[in-house]
Amino acid sequence: MNDAAMSLNSIIDVNFLLINRIAVLVVTLVFFTVVLLLKRNRGQEIHPRVTAPIKLALFGVLLLGAEMSLAGIQSYRDLIEGIQTLVVLLCFAKLVLYLVVDVYLRIHTQREVPSFVRDTVRLVVYLTVGILSLRVVFKIDISTIVTTTTVLTAAIAFAMQSTLSNALSGFSIQTDKLMDRHNWISIPDKDIFGEIINVGFRYTTLRCLNNTLQMVPNSLIMQSVVTYYGNRYSAEKTELNIDVMLGYDMPPESAKELLTRVMLNDRDVLQQPVPVTRLKSLADNGIVYQMNCRIEDPSKRRPMQDNLYTQVWYAVTRAGYSFPFPHRQIVTAEAKAPFSFSREQLVRCLQCADLFATLETKTIEELAGRIPVSVFGSGEVIVRQGDAGSSLYIVLKGTLEVEYDDTVIGSIDEDSFFGEMSLLTGEPRGATVRACNEVWLAEMTKAVLEPILHANPSLVETMSSALAERKQAAIRNVEAANAAEVTSSTREEYLQRLKQFFRL
Q1: Is the CB of residue 400 less than 8 Å from the CB of residue 433?
Q2: Confidence class of residue 50 from pLDDT cuts 50, 70 and 90?
Q3: Is the pLDDT reported for residue 487 higher than 50?
Q4: Residues 123 and 182 in one domain
Q5: d(CA 264, CA 96)
Q6: Number of domains in the chain
Q7: Which domain covers residue 412, as residue numbers?
Q8: What is the 3-state secondary structure (H, E, C) of 81-117?
Q9: d(Cα 233, Cα 158) in Å, to the nearest integer?
Q10: What's the CA gap between 412 and 428, in Å, rounded?
Q11: How far apart (Å, rounded) are the C-alpha atoms in residues 44 and 38?
Q12: Domain shared by 39 and 79, yes or no
């Protein structure tokens, strides 16, 4: 009687385990098949963590059929049952892992689950499944293994202390909000600067400015001084500091005003808080100034440094100063002018201009000899809308763009001129003109033109007609760019304003 009862209990246990295995395989197969169909209908990427469990579950069903077919052969049946049980445990692990990471954590955090968290959950799940398989499939007592391998465990832990250090450091980095993905950081001691792409067990992946990926050990980040720059969406914008050395012959106030103007005219520099330039130190070879401004996107730090340094060189050279040489170097050769231009080109531009069409060649040549030439770098502002001005610019080389109310309405090419309204009538600048590349400009001021007008009174009539025509063309450009309506001035109005401005 007792033997019959034990046999019945054994059969019940076997059937119960069989039902559990079938249930796990069916649930895994149905769940991941539904997920696969949903992702395919939505056009989403099908990841192997969705397709792999389906294949594994089908393999488990195949093994289950083989187990039932070989039920009469005990040795083969036990082998296939053991393999099938391992497959079922793996299916269960993948199901739990997907439910915890890709369903619960994804919904709870409302963002992509970091790889560090995913790896941690995967380690716990597979470790649990491994312990279960040792107990259920291989009939091994875990306590015996732990007791007999204490020395081996200590040796392994000692050998993996670097890996463990990186893993613990990765956990600390992952919990730090300043080290979130897409933030920019730098490690000055290692000359590392990049965007955080991923935080893993062993290393943090950074995307550098040259679009390469740099794997930095987590322990190195924890042991180093790290500078945080945020990202383009951060409320606090990152600072950009640039050191520039100028000579002692340039007054500090003039130098600070010039360097600050360069930052204000750069379109990528934030205007709030206002950029400032400070005198940093009095060095042996010159005065060191620090240009301080805020930028929108940390990824543009080096391109902006390039732009600002370039514009500083042009601005300092145009102001008549140079950058200091080391005092220990003896310079015997005279410094050569960085730019040279042809007076014939300036004469030709004046002869082609409607404003000076009635002047004699000799007068134009005399006028050309009194006009200075300045050079501007790409991105620099030559005149700004609304500023006072009393000079006309003739373009000897390069191209400029014209902005009205921050909207580009046209361009100015070589052999053209602009600023005639301010020169001839004293009007404020009607638009902002910015260099698109390196431009050479000849500047004609009121002091240069006034003697010519007194000597040639008929020139006033010609200029008033040309001004009226160019004003109408400017109005059309502004209206085409949906700017504010501008009222035109007649030829007679300009004639009176010219005579009043030049006291004719």
Answers
A1: yes
A2: confident
A3: no
A4: no
A5: 57
A6: 4
A7: 345-501
A8: HHHHHHHHHHHHHHHHHHHHHHHHHHHHHCCCCCHHH
A9: 43
A10: 19
A11: 9
A12: yes
**Domain shared by 140 and 202, yes or no:** no
Residues 333, 351: Cα–Cα separation, whole Å: 38
Q: What is the crossing angle of helices 446-455 and 459-480, to 10°? A: 130
Task: Collect all residues with Cβ–Cβ distance below 8 Å to 409 and sequence separation of at least 6.
Answer: 402, 403, 431, 477, 478, 480, 481, 483
Main-chain dihedrals φ then ψ at residue 406, nearest 5 degrees: 65, 15
Instruction: Tell me which of 140-149, 167-176, 184-193, 343-352 is least confident.
Output: 140-149
CA distances, 104 to each of 181, 228, 504 (Å) = 20, 31, 85
- Read off the tokens for 257: 């005003």
- And the tokens for 270? 């934030």
| CA gap 504, 500 in Å, rounded | 7
Using left for φ > 0, alpha for ψ between -120 and 50, and beta otherwise, residue 112 falls in beta
Same-domain check for residues 291 and 274: yes
Chain segment 295-342, per-residue pLDDT in tens: 888 888 888 889 999 999 999 999 989 888 775 655 566 656 667 777
* Alpha carbon distance 86, 21 (integer Å): 10
Indicate whether 132 and 198 sit together in one domain. no
Averaged pLDDT, 9-21: 59
Q: Is the confidence at residue 284, as pLDDT, over 50?
A: yes
User: pLDDT category, 255, cuts 50, 70, 90?
Assistant: very high
DSSP run (H or E) holding 381: strand 381-383
Structure tokens, 25: 């395989």
Tell whether 188 and 265 lie within a shared domain: no
Looking at the fold, whether 414 and 431 belong to one and the same domain comes out as: yes
Maximum Cα–Cα distance for the chain, whole Å? 138
Can you tell me the mean pLDDT for 120-125?
Answer: 78
